[in-house]
């Protein structure tokens, strides 16, 4: 599959937007040596081509999402046509084409399991070209190290949001570069109130603006889902061992037909195969299936999530290990 070619200026712009997705175009232009109009044009090209997405990074609970889930879908037809439909369904936060038994992997954010079922029903089960769907919910997060979160501390979920805060967050997650005037117009709230609350949400770390890049399109990198079946009392230790692998970015304990689901990235197919062998050799792993991603159809929402406390590695002792 041909890769989307990014030049040095594109890369510098992306680095600026990863640090702060709300950086104004005049500032971006100054830092990369372009005019503001030229910087805006590059940004528009990257976003229109689906390579770049500037998002608001939040904890899903700040938007009322208590449940994250994945769905595997078998679909007959052109996936681009299904993607157009799925992008209009609230709650679908990622979709990629897969190699394997199912040809689509979808992530869903919802208030509870019933809403997960409703989202999947709206997106897929009403369509005659969908032949099978299997769902699992994320029960515990073991590791969550997405591209946009590297080096960034995860924000705690906000629990004392006002209705205006919640409404602002839902708009800012999709478009953190929206102006205060645009937000005020959509919400029909006074400009100065919207400005003050928006600034507070960013200043308090409840939301952070960053850039998410479709790595499948821009880098010679193989990404894949890692479907894990555990057996015996060594299961928890096995998950900790898998989480320590640098190639594994995401890992969660799940309901349904799997014990755990992960996401991995490797430089090539050989490294991906080696990773699968490494995981299968870990005591407590009964089976691990590596299913390569083919192309991204809905760019992922990189939620700001801390792993559950029992999965965090113990801090190193200041005086080093005993003996």
Note down, in words, how this protein is organized:
The protein has three domains: 8-49, Winged helix-like DNA-binding domain superfamily/Winged helix DNA-binding domain (Arc Repressor Mutant, subunit A, Orthogonal Bundle); 61-149 and 214-308, Alpha-Beta Plaits (2-Layer Sandwich); 159-205, Winged helix-like DNA-binding domain superfamily/Winged helix DNA-binding domain (Arc Repressor Mutant, subunit A, Orthogonal Bundle), CATH 1.10.10.10. The protein is 35% helix and 27% strand. It contains eleven helices and ten strands. The protein has an eight-stranded antiparallel β-barrel, surrounded by four helices. It has a two-stranded antiparallel sheet with strand order 1-6. α7 (180-187) packs across α8. The longest helix has 13 residues, at 36-48. The radius of gyration is 21 Å and the shape is globular. It starts with 7 loop residues before the first helix and ends in a 25-residue tail after the last strand. Mean pLDDT is 87; it is low at 148-153.
């Amino acid at each position: 599959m041909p890769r989307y070619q990014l030049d040095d200026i594109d890369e510098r712009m992306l680095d600026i937007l990863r640090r702060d997705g709300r950086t104004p175009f005049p500032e971006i232009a100054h830092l990369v040596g372009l005019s503001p109009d030229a910087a805006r044009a590059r940004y528009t090209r990257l976003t229109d081509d689906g390579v770049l997405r500037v998002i608001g990074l939040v904890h899903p609970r700040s938007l009322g999402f208590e449940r994250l889930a994945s769905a595997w879908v078998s679909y007959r037809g052109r996936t681009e046509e299904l993607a157009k439909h799925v992008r209009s369904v609230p709650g679908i936060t990622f979709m990629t084409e897969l190699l394997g038994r199912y040809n689509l992997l979808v992530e869903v954010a919802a208030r509870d399991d019933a809403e997960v079922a409703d989202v999947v029903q709206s997106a897929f089960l009403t369509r005659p070209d969908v032949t099978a769907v299997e769902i699992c919910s994320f029960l515990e997060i073991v590791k969550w190290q997405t591209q946009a979160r590297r080096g960034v501390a995860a924000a705690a979920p906000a629990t004392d949001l006002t209705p205006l805060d919640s409404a602002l967050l839902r708009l800012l997650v999709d478009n953190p570069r929206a102006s205060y005037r645009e937000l005020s117009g959509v919400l029909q709230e006074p400009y100065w109130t919207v400005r003050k609350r928006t600034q507070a949400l960013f200043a308090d770390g409840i939301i952070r603006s960053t850039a998410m890049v479709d790595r499948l399109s821009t880098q010679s990198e193989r990404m894949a889902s890692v479907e894990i079946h555990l057996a015996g009392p060594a299961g928890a230790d096995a998950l900790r061992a898998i989480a320590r692998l640098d190639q594994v970015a995401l890992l969660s304990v799940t309901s349904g037909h799997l014990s755990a689901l992960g996401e991995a990235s490797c430089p090539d197919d050989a490294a991906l195969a080696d990773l699968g062998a490494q995981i299968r050799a870990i005591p407590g792993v009964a089976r691990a299936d590596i299913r390569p991603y083919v192309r991204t159809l809905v760019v992922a929402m990189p939620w700001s999530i801390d792993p559950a406390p029992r999965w965090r590695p113990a801090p190193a002792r200041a005086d080093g290990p005993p003996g």
